[in-house]
């Protein structure tokens, strides 16, 4: 059990926490000295809490799977070890295929506890409302999971928590996405009580063959092949006042989180990548609009990207390719829907871009991918 877990149970000393925090900051400073090209997307190894037990219960060797994606066994012993998000995505995908457990990522989320978020779990407990707590949590994304693009949309009687994983390359993310949304669901239920229910839980991918676990954990209000990943909540629930605890330790935890946040300054191209992903489905994802969001001129943005060996169009195409392959592989969205979600003016414009980018049509590519997946499934099932 970690020192933070003991602290949340009222048994850990502040001095122990300070010592642990110093170790975390040192590891992040070492990472901050890496070049932009070297910097991977990182997430705390707390994301693997319960992984070994879940894998073994599914009949697979967790440590062999970890070796397969290059993750050391020791990262299971310390929640604060930073691991590559790409490796985590591949690990969960391999495990889901090997075990034929489509809800592998979601099952892993169900084993998480809020204190495993680290010091930020103390910080969000000090917010007055659940809405404030979630906004604070998302404000520290760069420390917790810098591949996660998340935002809160407030719309009349609902609050929508939207989440998307943007890694800058084609990586299977279905399982990691369900883990991410599942953890957010866990946080909201911890804040609002065990009887809280969301209005809707949304995933952009197609539904699994068996929905029983999804329904038992997330409830019956599910939407697959949705326009976004995330959770729709009643605004009245999110405005509910919370009971604050551990004020002194929370203040210390906030200072630590702010310090850690300053150690993880994103490259300008990564900031642009996240803005593009956020604006993509609006149809207004232009270099002028992104520059406006950043408070700089178009010329300044071009110059900043050029210093990192990037151009706006190359970053835009990279995000579009990543999202397009997710829609092709994991969803049943039509050509028209995919075009809209990628910010194209028409289905024909998207079809032309996809053909130029991948050398085949969106529909033919999807059919080929489905055949490939079915063949992999049969091979796995025969082993």
Automatic annotation (TrEMBL):
Top-level taxon in the UniProt lineage: Bacteria
GO molecular function: DNA-binding transcription factor activity; transcription cis-regulatory region binding
Family matches, as Gene3D superfamilies: Homeodomain-like (1.10.10.60)
Domain (HTH araC/xylS-type) ranges: 270-368
Keywords: DNA-binding
Any single Gene Ontology cellular-component annotation: cytosol
Protein name (database record): Helix-turn-helix domain-containing protein
Species the sequence originates in: Hydrogenophaga aromaticivorans
Taxon lineage: Bacteria, Pseudomonadati, Pseudomonadota, Betaproteobacteria, Burkholderiales
């Amino acid at each position: 059990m970690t020192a933070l877990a003991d602290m949340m149970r009222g048994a850990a000393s502040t001095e122990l926490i300070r010592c642990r925090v110093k170790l975390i900051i040192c590891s992040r400073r070492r990472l901050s000295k890496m070049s932009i090209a070297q910097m991977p997307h990182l997430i705390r190894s707390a994301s693997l809490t319960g992984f070994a037990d879940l894998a073994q219960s599914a009949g697979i060797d967790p440590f062999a799977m970890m070796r397969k994606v290059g993750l050391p066994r020791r990262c299971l012993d310390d929640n604060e070890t930073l691991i590559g998000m790409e490796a985590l995505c591949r690990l969960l995908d391999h495990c889901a295929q090997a075990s034929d457990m489509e809800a592998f990522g979601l099952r892993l989320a169900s084993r998480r506890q809020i204190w495993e978020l680290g010091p930020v779990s103390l910080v969000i407990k000090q917010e007055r409302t659940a809405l404030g707590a979630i906004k604070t949590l998302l404000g520290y994304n760069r420390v917790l999971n810098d591949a996660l693009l998340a935002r809160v949309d407030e719309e009349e009687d609902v609050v929508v928590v939207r989440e998307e994983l943007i890694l800058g390359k084609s990586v299977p993310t279905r399982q990691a996405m369900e883990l991410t949304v599942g953890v957010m669901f866990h946080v909201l239920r911890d804040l609002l009580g065990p009887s809280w229910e969301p209005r809707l839980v949304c995933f952009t991918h197609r539904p699994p063959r068996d929905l029983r676990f999804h329904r038992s954990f997330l409830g019956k209000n599910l939407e697959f092949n949705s326009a976004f990943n995330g959770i729709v909540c009643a605004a009245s629930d999110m405005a509910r006042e919370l009971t604050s605890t551990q004020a002194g330790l929370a203040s210390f935890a906030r200072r630590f989180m702010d310090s850690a946040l300053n150690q993880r300054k994103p490259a300008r191209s990564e900031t642009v990548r996240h803005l593009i992903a956020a604006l993509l489905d609006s149809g207004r994802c232009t270099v002028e609009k992104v520059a406006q969001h950043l408070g700089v001129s178009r010329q300044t943005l071009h110059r900043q990207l050029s210093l990192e060996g990037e151009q706006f169009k190359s970053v835009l195409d990279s995000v579009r390719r990543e999202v397009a392959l997710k829609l092709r592989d994991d969803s049943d969205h039509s050509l028209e829907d995919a075009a809209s979600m990628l910010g194209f003016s028409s289905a024909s414009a998207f079809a032309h871009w996809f053909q130029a980018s991948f050398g085949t049509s969106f529909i033919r590519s999807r059919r080929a991918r489905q055949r490939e997946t079915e063949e992999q499934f049969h091979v796995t099932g025969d082993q």
